[in-house]
Amino acid sequence: MSDEDKDSKTENPTAKRMTEAAEKGNLPVSREVPLFASILAFYVFLVFFLPSSVARIGETLKDLFEQPDQWRLENSPDVVSLSAHLGWAVAAFLVPAMLLFIIFGLASSFAQNMPSMVLERVRPQMSRISPVKGFTRIYSVPGFVEFGKSIFKILIVSLIMYFTLRGEYFASLDAMFSDPQVIFVKLSSIVSKMVIVVMLSTGVLAAVDVIWTRYHWYQQLKMTKQEVKDEYKQAQGDPIVKSRQRSVARDRARRRMINNVPRATLVIANPTHYAVALRYVREESDAPVVVAKGQDLIALKIREIAESNGIPVFEDPPLARSMFAQVSVDSVIPPAFYKAVAELVHRVYASRSLKKRTR
Questions:
Q1: What is the C-alpha separation between 134 and 137, in angstroms, rounded?
Q2: What ranges do the domains of the chain cover?
Q3: Of 130, 205, 327, 345, which residue is the least packed, with the fewest Cβ within 10 Å?
Q4: Is 288 exposed, middle or buried (0-12, 13-18, 19+ CB in 10 A)?
């Protein structure tokens, strides 16, 4: 990525951008966390399992060397029996360590990111074997960070371990001439101190590396203003196209509504500003239905069509304004308007009956 590209990426990554990166396997992963988990697993094994495991395997070896008569090697079954006996002893020693390393290793991975199947990560790519790309990866900011972490692990851990263990030097030499059990206890104490020093140092390094890894991942996903606009257009659609679609939809709904006016039973109007066309047929619905409504020019158009089709128009400004604001097209009027509308419907049916009698 060039400096110009980095400077132009000023916008925070969107949720969609981060989701797509996760689907491609691009997630912040610290390499120091599994290392810290491995050292922690070894320390747990050293403190809680190693003494008893060493005691058991020591008893096995002691029995083997002190009573060799009971382990004759005269034929192949004898060899198999001895091998199985030693194998079980070694397995009892190694299995707890293996299980601890597996459990702590999986926990370190799950703590950073939940596992997922990403085929993109195993797809062959020429950039992975390109010398130029490899040189770029080595001599980049992440490469220098990895180099700095290696220097820290070598120098700092060595210095801390030196100052921690320099007092044990002569005690270790004296232990070499002591009883074997004393040697083991002394050696275990020294190893424990070494592991604690390494574990604490690696823990600090892992915590810093987690922060750095997530920060670097977030910076890599930053977007330019144009990328944010393009993503918004993809998610929401082009604003101009969407506006045009809404306009077309409104025009179609308006034409359909105007075409329904001839089916109306009556129209309630506020002389020029509002008009609401109602249809009431007992066989169709229990209450009047709004088939059309409009404001200003549309209101005048509704009145014009109603008058040309002989549909009665009643001027009632408060009722027209209220119904226009509260009732949508193709909906039954609320009970609050029943009384006022019923009077108008009654007048329409009375007028129709009178016309029939006069004929």
A1: 5
A2: 3-115+122-233, 257-358
A3: 130
A4: buried
Q: What is the 3-state secondary structure (H, E, C) of 47-106?
A: HHHHHHHHHHHHHHHHHHHHCHHHCCCCCHHHHHHHHHHHHHHHHHHHHHHHHHHHHHHH
In the sheet that holds 266-270, the strands lie side by side as 289-295, 274-279, 266-270, 313-315
Question: How far is the C-alpha of 271 from the C-alpha of 319, rounded, in Å?
Answer: 12
Q: Which amino acid is at 358?
A: T
10: which DSSP letter? -
CATH H-level superfamily of 257-358: secretion proteins EscU (3.40.1690.10)
Residue 132 pLDDT more than 80? no
Residue pair 303/340 in contact by the 8 Å Cβ criterion: no
Side chain identity at 230, as an amino acid letter?
D
Query: Phi/psi at 207 (nearest 5 deg)?
Result: -65, -45
| Bridge partner residues of 15 (DSSP) | none
- Give the pLDDT confidence of 144-193 residue by residue, as tens digits: 777 777 787 778 767 766 776 676 666 666 666 666 556 666 677 777 77
CB 261 within 8 A of CB 302: yes
CA distances from 104 to 42, 145, 286 (A): 10, 25, 71
Residues 6+ apart with CB under 8 A from 186: 171, 172, 175, 178
CB 93 within 8 A of CB 56: yes
- CA gap 26, 29 in Å, rounded: 9
Instruction: Give the residue among 289, 313, 281, 310 at the shortest CA–CA distance from 299.
Output: 313
Q: Determine the 3-state secondary structure of 2 from DSSP.
A: coil
Average pLDDT over residues 77-95: 80
CA distances from 317 to 251, 261, 274, 275, 323 (A): 26, 19, 8, 9, 10
